[in-house]
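Hi there,

I know you've been waiting on this one. I reran it after we fixed the sequence typo, so this is the corrected version. Both the input and the resulting structure follow.
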Amino acid sequence: MPASGKPAKIPRLTRRTLQGVWCALIVPWTDRDEVDLRRLTQEVRGYAGTGIHGVYTGGTTGEFYAQDDATFAKITETVVREAHALGLPVQIGASALSTRTTIQRIRVARRAGADAVQLALPFWLELKDDEVERYVAEVIAASGKTPVVLYLTGRSKRKISPELLGRLAARHPTFIGTKDTGADVPTVQAILKAAPDLAIFGGEDFYDRLPAGGRGGYCSITGFNARKVVELYTLCAEGRLAEAKPLADAFRRYLYEALVDPLVKEAGLWDSAVDRIQRVAGGGVVGVRCQSPYRSGTEQHVKQVIAWVRKNTPELLPPHLAKAVK
């Protein structure tokens, strides 16, 4: 759906309006490693009424690195159409190994009506500062009026310093925010000192980041229970930190004890596989299959996550599992 056809209730994303809980979308694959558009449509619709503030594609969770151009276009068009039908804004992850390929994907995203594009630095060779500045200038020029969010990840082999982010923000008004799930509070504060109006996002660590000036999170754990993640964000955004603390602690336990320790450290799975496991546990239809050559999780892993939550943090159970307990 073109931008002119967006529902009026979807606000334009700016440094001021970008906030809240944004859900990472997972791409369902067929047995032939092709995108399953029927299940992708169901996946987007599954977030209706959960209270999330938007959805995004193309990070590690969405396996952008495993998509050819045709697959990228199908995913982009389907997600924008279905999310806009729900009144949800969409950021399209258009990261690639070169500026040229990134710009090609930005054009696809703009034609589909994306509300913003989310970009990591090209990551095969580590960029120097002048190369970062060139890349950002060229992709922002290609994006036109479509806002840009920079994904600051160690997988790009380098992070952009707060000082350089400040210079980029001063030069490019449509550079509206960052995603960095690894930045600590002092780093968030340093970025905001250099670029006070940027929308700084992390993951689900609202309890620590929002008081430091953060605006929200790009969260994979919304896949397990989006409503509870929104509840945590709302409490922290309203400054009700004492009420938020038990829920924040429960999510921290879930993240490390149910996911990171058993699935990453012990089973050796990558983030994309872990995010699928928790999404299936949360009722999603995406399946556990990752693109080859990366290892997939199993249905046993799904049962393991559910069992851990039932035993240790039952308050985090999504509605369909909470009903089963009752």
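Quick highlight: The chain has one domain: 3-240.

Best,
R. S.
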